[in-house]
Amino acid sequence: MWQTYYTPTSIEKTLELLGQHNTGNHDMPARIIAGGTDLLVELQRGERQAHVLIDVTRIGGLDQITFSDDDDGKANGEMIHVGPMVTHNQALSSELLIERGYPLALACWRVGTPQLRNRGTIAGNLITASPANDTITALWALDARLTLQSTRGARTLSFSEFYHGVRRTALAPDEMVTDIAFPALRANQRGSFAKLALRRAHAIAVVNVAVLLTFGKDERMVTEARITMGSVAPTIVRATEAEAFLLGTPLDDEQIDRAAGLAIQSTACIDDVRSGGDYRRQALRVLIRRTLTALRDGTEREQFPPAPPKLWSTSNGHYPRVAGKTIRHQAEGPEPIECTVNGENVVVQGAGGKTLLAMLREDLALTGTKEGCGEGECGACTVWMDGIAVLACLIPAPRAHGAQIVTVEGLAYDDVLHPVQQAFIDEGAIQCGFCTPGFVMAGANMLEEIPDPTREQIVAGLTGNLCRCTGYYKIVRAIERTAQED
User: Fold this and answer.
1) Are residues 232 and 87 in the same domain?
2) What are the pLDDT digits (tens) for 120-146?
3) Which stretches within 247-358 are classed as H helix?
4) pTM score of the predicted model
5) Which terminus of the chain has a lower count of CB atoms within 10 Å, N or C?
């Protein structure tokens, strides 16, 4: 899939590599890889080619969410900055984002599954540039901007300047995103996000909506409005007529219904495999009406779950960084991948062009980790990387260099099964058994993070795992049983 895999330890080295490989005529230019939740799937399908991957996940300081009070003329200078390596789970765990950037925090909660949110980054979601990507809609409503940097310098673009169409952006081949910034919500502002998909979790949006309202002294009087709609056109659409209509009017049911009607007139909704245009229009109307009503009533934050499971075990959800020189692995080169697997130091050669899943199964004979889909859809390949639950099919094997990996074989200790494994046996939660390792790994990780989870937390923590035998009730019961016995 790739020939060379770099792990730089600084932005400067990353930009140098991009400039080196992406200037001039290159049929298969270098690509930055962070979460890899889109890129790895595209590479494996042959939809995209890249001879060189540059992994930026080990660079220190890029996974931070910070607040600045610089006077730049917007929102009294109060800005929130999201680093390019901030994952969706890190975002939805940020008190700053929940308080001052709520639409983005809620959108991150709606993305994918715990395992995908542990690797997928907000910046990657933005760069993929699908109009159905949830964080784009939320950040567009928040009036965000992107800072792009190369060896030629830096530039900052608004979202309308950055997005050119479906999977088309202004990002040059030698640039990387180094900052995502937006005005922090003020005391008189409320915002929210809503999404309709074909299932409740782990599904691409049929439509999504973000709304940001600024209220005057009368808390029902809107002085400024931003309404954005996703998955309806090649890029995100602003409902400008509805925004203008809301200004200076009391936010009652009649006005809300009228604004929702104006919003759906802003675009001729697309038809695709997920929905027809007419259905999208009606769904948009309902979502906008519900969101405006919740913002008026101050109930929008009831949609955000208390203590959502992230499958971080006892870690803080941040991957360890590396320092020193850039690490290079060739697809079939002599450079070894050195890591700790189930408590043992291992050295693997010739795996530089494989996924972590392939390395575990083919080179280390750890076949408990299963390949169900190879695309991050089923969770059968769930392992722990530095304590965090991830999908081995979507991680390049060189990313494991220097990491601590735990597979299902590593849960049992001294021939004694892990309590979750034993509970699966006692509750009859094992059916065909193919999905079982992934469920066990997710469940055991969740119980280390949340020792006494509610049923809702258990269900949420297992949304990244599919059972083809439909045995979810006994699986959930096995996790409950383990928590009760501990």
Assistant:
1) yes
2) 999 999 999 999 999 999 999 999 999
3) 253-263, 277-297, 356-358
4) 0.96
5) C
